[in-house]
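Final report, Chapter 2: Outcomes

The project's central promise was a pipeline that accepts a single protein chain and returns its three-dimensional structure in a standardized token representation, suitable for archiving and comparison. That pipeline is now operational. To close this chapter, we reproduce one record exactly as it appears in the project archive, with the input sequence first and the structure output second.
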Amino acid sequence: MSADGIPFSQNVSARNLRADGAMLCDLSVLLAAGDVIGLQSGIRKARFRIVNSERLSSRVAEICLVDGQACPWADILPPQPSPARLDREPGLREKRRFTRYHIPFPIELNCEETNGIPMRTVASDVSGRGCYVETFFPLPVGTQLNFVVHFGERKVESTAIVRACDGGVGMGIEFVGLNLDTQTEMQDCIENQARAAKEVPGR
């Protein structure tokens, strides 16, 4: 059911696939946070809860697998490193702890493609290593960016690179200029914001 209470069925595209959720794109209807929908991938079906939904160039919605349901795209997810491998390769352990959160996170971007004009926007799916910026006109993969973010009482200016480009939807950005200490501090701030958002009545 859509947010208007109307039954619907459609094909959609998905990104940011995880074992417990994903981001749906190109929705023809608006979905209400907290509602449950059925989703089929191949021959497998599962129920998902809507975490967040908003209109941009198309309608997008973050979904989370309902408890007790099996992930319908588990067979196409990359294998997770074993605990033993994480112990042998600390870099993998560090990468894994930077969980992405779907919270509003203001960011300012600047590059040659924008003619030096700062692009002020709000990122989503953000972590200390990068974010996803939803925009009508994403920049090409490989584009070098300068960015400015504020977290806690800090203002950080550094460099980033576009790692993914979804036409008409947005782009994935990696914060290549941040050292590990700054990434960790930023991640802590993001996690605090995510916890605070869950504590707001009505969310």
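Archive annotation: Confidence is low (pLDDT under 50) at residues 89-96.
This record, like all others produced under the grant, will remain available to the consortium after the project formally closes.
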